[in-house]
């Protein structure tokens, strides 16, 4: 039985808070704070209607550390769950340190003025969290999060070492819009327009954005073009599995998405350099994000499945030579919407945020310092995925991937 304070009131937060309320034996007291209190109230009303559970709501600017510390001291949670934006990671970690409370997030820190995300800033907090006797759990969404845990489960139960790893992220959902992103547009477009990077023979190799395309037949979706790109779990997976010869991340994009993104990029709309417009300074990407459909409004119209998983090749644990396994989850947009009022991209992130929170508050995952999910026992997390809406399958493939 524990008290949690969730920060942020977007799609991911909405799913996580609904799922926490459905597990009242673990999360007895749920508090939700964000920049716009009305969004917290909307989530709380839906949770009350669907589950009967009360959620307390607050307005907070998470970048104001003293205000965050006051809120944490007032609520007295055993865990702060950061489901705001990557820009708020460090101030929320500072507040947790000052208040002596555990921390969890789903995305690594990214400065506002540079399209660059990496763990170094958060890993640098390790000694301070250790000295304070508290835990920070980083990257407990789907990717990073479930893909990281999938990989470590394969390494615990199937493979002695991993030689090659491919993470395949397919969103086969159709929202009926010409161009929209499935999570925060600003974060999504910064991620997609960044150069691709993959791990090869002990170092990251950089290639131009969206230059490598492969068609793959995804179960539950059908054939889709997927593009090699950089994704943040590659950094932690390479750190904790340095023996990997190669690790890559692939994401599917439809031709319409690529067409729109190319035009927007060519005309400068995806830039994060401030420009002057009618005497006011604006950032083109933030303006674009403001005119695009809000991800949380796409739930009702999105149909189809997501299919996200890992294909790993390595030496089999049982000494039977080299083996290849494919481990994945397929999630239905319609079912996710029916259960929580949000589409599957928010669902597949919010459910693992709830499960990671359950691991920490129940003491199943513990430690003093800053940890990635790769460092924890995958088994209790994998059990909860099966029970709480993200069932997974594992199969042996005939051989390594040929792309
Ligand atoms: P949204 O943009 O829908 O929601 C973000 C929320 O954070 C909004 O409610 C916003 O407030 C709030 N917020 C922003 N700034 C502040 C601030 N300074 N103080 C307090 N609250 C603030 O994003 P999503 O729900 O789609 O994503 C949430 C997080 O999940 C992001 O960090 C994203 O990168 C991550 N993510 C991780 C994935 C994974 O698999 N690991 C996949 C998808 C997302 P307001 O409503 O006022 O704008």
From TrEMBL:
Pfam families: Sacchrp_dh_C, Sacchrp_dh_NADP. InterPro entries: NAD(P)-bd_dom_sf (IPR036291), Sacchrp_dh-like_C (IPR032095), Sacchrp_dh_NADP-bd (IPR005097). Residues 4-137 form the Saccharopine dehydrogenase NADP binding domain. Residues 141-390 form the Saccharopine dehydrogenase-like C-terminal domain. This is Saccharopine dehydrogenase family protein. It comes from Erythrobacter mangrovi.
């Amino acid at each position: 039985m524990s008290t949690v304070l969730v920060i942020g009131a977007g799609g991911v937060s909405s799913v996580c808070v609904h799922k926490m309320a459905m597990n009242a034996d673990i999360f007895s007291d749920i508090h939700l704070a964000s920049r716009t209190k009305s969004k917290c109230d909307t989530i709380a009303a839906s949770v009350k209607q669907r589950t009967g559970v009360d959620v307390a709501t607050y307005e907070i600017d998470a970048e104001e550390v003293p205000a965050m510390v006051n809120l944490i001291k007032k609520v007295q949670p055993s865990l702060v769950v950061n489901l705001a934006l990557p820009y708020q990671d460090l101030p929320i970690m500072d507040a947790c340190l000052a208040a002596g409370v555990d921390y969890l997030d789903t995305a690594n820190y990214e400065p506002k003025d540079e399209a660059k995300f990496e763990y170094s800033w958060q890993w640098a907090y390790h000694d301070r969290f250790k000295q304070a006797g508290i835990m920070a759990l980083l990257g407990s969404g789907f990717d990073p999060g479930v893909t990281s845990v999938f990989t470590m489960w394969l390494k615990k139960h199937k493979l002695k070492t991993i030689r090659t790893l491919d993470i395949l992220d397919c969103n086969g959902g159709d929202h009926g819009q010409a161009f929209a992103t499935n999570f925060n547009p600003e974060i999504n477009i910064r991620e997609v327009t960044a150069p691709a990077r993959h791990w090869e023979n002990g170092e990251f190799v950089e290639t131009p954005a969206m230059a490598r395309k492969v068609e793959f037949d995804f179960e539950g979706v059908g054939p889709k073009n997927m593009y090699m790109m950089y994704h943040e779990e590659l950094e932690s997976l390479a750190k904790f599995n340095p023996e990997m010869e190669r690790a890559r991340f692939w994401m599917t994009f439809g031709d319409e998405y690529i067409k729109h993104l190319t035009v927007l990029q060519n005309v400068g709309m995806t830039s994060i350099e401030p420009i002057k417009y009618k005497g006011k300074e604006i950032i083109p990407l933030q303006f674009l994000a403001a005119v695009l459909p809000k991800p949380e409004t796409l739930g009702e119209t999105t149909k189809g499945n997501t299919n996200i998983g890992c294909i790993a090749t390595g030496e089999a644990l049982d000494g039977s030579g080299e083996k290849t396994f494919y481990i994945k989850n397929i999630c239905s947009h319609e079912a996710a919407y029916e259960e929580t009022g949000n589409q599957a991209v928010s669902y597949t992130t919010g459910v693992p945020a709830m499960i990671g929170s359950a691991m920490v508050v129940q003491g199943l995952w513990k430690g003093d310092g800053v940890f990635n999910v790769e460092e924890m026992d995958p088994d209790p997390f994998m059990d909860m995925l099966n029970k709480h809406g993200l069932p997974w399958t594992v199969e042996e493939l005939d051989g390594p991937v040929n792309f």
